[in-house]
Amino acid sequence: MTVLFASDLDQTLIYSCNSMGMDITEEELVEVERYEGKPLSFMTKKSQSALWNIGDSTFFLPVTTRTQAQYERVTGIFEGQQPPRFAVISNGAVILENGQPIKEWSDQIRQTCIDRKTVINELLPEIERHFSEDWVVKVREADDWFVYLIIDRARFPEDKLDFYTTTFKKLGWGLSLQGRKLYFMPESITKAGAMEYIKKRIGASYVVAAGDSLLDLDLLESADYGMLASHGEAAKNAAPTSAHIRKTENYGIKAGEEILARVAEISLQRQ
Ligand SMILES: [Mg+2]
């Protein structure tokens, strides 16, 4: 029986210095991503070893909102030179197979976005209308799929987030606030959709999913067993989740360790 372990990366399996928490010593850490010559993301050595030795019957699928270039920097999630066979990037708009985007998949997503008018050109004027405030540091476009604002969290009016969420939902965009980034994601770009495609491709019979943000919730809902990192946006959100989704007991990088320990257990049970 093949188990599919479909997991978000940032703040689920890998952590920056700011997000890892205090409960950790330098000796426990291993660098998994380097950017402009500097270490950027980490796992614990225990986590990395658990991920590398996940077992032959469990298939690891990274499922991230990172773009291809951002994903390719995270070399510490696999051992040696062989990255995972598949990776879901750009929140599900792109699936990499042996490092190459599957064209038919993205073409179909693109067409749906065009049909629903959830394309960046339609979104940008709305963003300008609502976000002229001084807390918007930058507006970034991710490979023509979605938009995120780099914001000044100290000045960001958290009490207006519900209003923004409702306003943009009417236009077909989902919002997700993660650290200094406020994402605007077309509702037809989902992690769950891409995961289901891979599930069929590899013939998996059981799916374990892990994540931390609102963009991960559809992935966890579609899985047989879901783990939600307790420190994340989604766990703090009041939205109810199904009974097969558990919150981690730990926070920060130790939540990542807990998730991988649980995956190892499930993997053993289902062999
Ligand atoms: Mg995340």
Task: Compose a concise summary of this entry.
The protein is α/β, with parallel strands linked by helices and 271 residues long. It contains nine helices and 14 strands.
Oligomer classification: single chain
C-alpha termini separation: 6 Å
What is the CATH domain class of the largest domain? Alpha Beta
The helix count comes to 9
Name the helix and strand elements from N-terminus to C-terminus, one letter apiece.
EEEHEHEEEHHEEHEEHEHEHEH
**Which ligands appear in the coordinates?**
magnesium ion
Task: Give the strand order, joined by hyphens, for the main sheet.
Answer: 4-1-12-13-14
Examine the coordinates and then state which fold CATH places here, giving the name of the CATH topology of the largest domain. Rossmann fold
Helix and strand composition category: alpha/beta
CATH architecture of the largest domain: 3-Layer(aba) Sandwich
Topology:
Layout: E1 3-7, E2 29-35, E3 38-44, H1 45-52, E4 58-62, H2 68-72, E5 86-89, E6 94-97, E7 100-101, H3 103-115, H4 120-130, E8 136-142, E9 146-151, H5 161-169, E10 173-178, E11 181-186, H6 191-202, E12 206-211, H7 217-222, E13 225-228, H8 233-236, E14 245-247, H9 253-269
Parallel strand pairs: 1-4, 1-12, 12-13, 13-14
Antiparallel strand pairs: 2-3, 5-6, 6-7, 8-9, 9-11, 10-11
Helix pairs in contact: 1-9
The structure holds magnesium ion.
Residues 8, 10-12, 212-213 line the site of magnesium ion.
In words, what does this structure look like?
- By secondary structure, the chain is α/β, with parallel strands linked by helices.
- The protein folds into two domains: 3-102 and 189-269, HAD superfamily/HAD-like (Rossmann fold, 3-Layer(aba) Sandwich); 117-186, Hypothetical Protein Ta0175, Chain: A, domain 2 (Alpha-Beta Complex), CATH 3.90.1070.
- The chain contains nine helices and 14 strands.
- The chain has a five-stranded parallel β-sheet with strand order 4-1-12-13-14. Strands 8-9-11-10 form a four-stranded antiparallel β-sheet. It has a three-stranded antiparallel β-sheet with strand order 5-6-7.
- It starts with a strand and ends with a helix.
- The mean pLDDT is 95.
- The structure holds magnesium ion.
- Magnesium ion (MG) binds at residues 8, 10-12, 212-213.
- Magnesium ion binds at residues 8, 10-12, 212-213.
